[in-house]
Design a protein that fits this description.
The structure is a single chain. Helix content is 40%, strand content 14%. By secondary structure, the chain is α/β, with parallel strands linked by helices. The protein folds into two domains: 7-138, Glutaredoxin (3-Layer(aba) Sandwich), CATH 3.40.30.10; 142-343. The strands form two sheets. The protein has a five-stranded mixed sheet with strand order 3-2-1-4-5, with no helix packed on it. The chain has a five-stranded mixed sheet with strand order 8-7-6-9-10. Helix 4 (113-119) packs across helix 9 (212-232), helix 8 runs parallel beside helix 11 (275-284) and helix 11 packs across helix 13.
Amino acid sequence: MALRDKMLLLLISGLDISSNEIPFLRDTYIESKTSVQQDYEIVWVPILSGQWTTSSEEKCVKLSQMMSWYMIEHPNFISENTKKFIRHVWKFKRRPIVVAIDENGDVVCRNVIHMMYIWGPKAFPFTPLRERTLWNSAKTRLDSLVFDFDPNITRMLEDGKWVILYGGNDFEWSRKFTTQVHKVLSDARILAEMIYVGENIELDPQSNSLDLRKVGYFWTRLESILISRYQSFSARDSGTDPILGEVKKLLSYKFADTWACLRTASSDSMVHGLGDVMLQGFMKFEMRERDFQTKEFAKEFQNHIEQLTRGSSSGQACRRIVLHTDDRDAVESLKCPSCDHSMEKKIRYGCCHIDEIE
């Protein structure tokens, strides 16, 4: 039998699994089979909440055609007791989870989807120990995790270019920011790429724009980084973990009017902040060409941005972090990325009018 004596990853979802999520899991699966040849298989376990209809059959077929792995023979073959176990023990509700089961049939992790989003095939064999090992590796740097979600961006950095991600929906700020940055870097003979990360892809013709699928992946991956980091180290936010602190700031930008994040090819750190502060930073910071080529430049520029933030009104603005997870205890509490206060925890409901099976 093809699945005997192999590690299994059970992809558990409803038929409303996003068609944007499947390609990233598929890329990890294909890479693990071609470049590193890891001995595991994925099995899709679709969980239905209602009756099997012609519509649900069409959706099931369409989704299965996007997948490169196994699927249970038919969703109706899953008993109600099995569904109850999956919901109560493995905590599946609506958002997809991936349960890792070793060769002996033992569950080694109830949900490895965050590991897969962050590390890809490197997460094998998908155990909590492997997750901590990856976090503790000297090769693990937050700037790499944030920027390597797109092979094109990775190539830009390898070519010695600066990469500036920015977002928001303020056209006037976008125009001023891109114009100022292009001028400063052009005067200093620095090659750079500016990439818009947002839904308003027509905002600025001077920059490249990520397609909406990659925009979603960018934010989802940051959420996974936060959850993984939080759960891998004592499951608490003491306010002293620099990686967790930076991820919280980055995630809070999703709901900001404007923001930007810079990574230089020669540095192992990022410079990021809210839009008005980053614009001031490029206008006021004394740019000297010799500074750009040193690893210290990014740190000095980030210190400059933080000083501007403390003196700006946007630095006092409320921060919001939204985690798209069904597990309310995935992250029990967080400290504000701008101050030392505990953030208020809320429940938010939303609907994007997906045709669900209920």
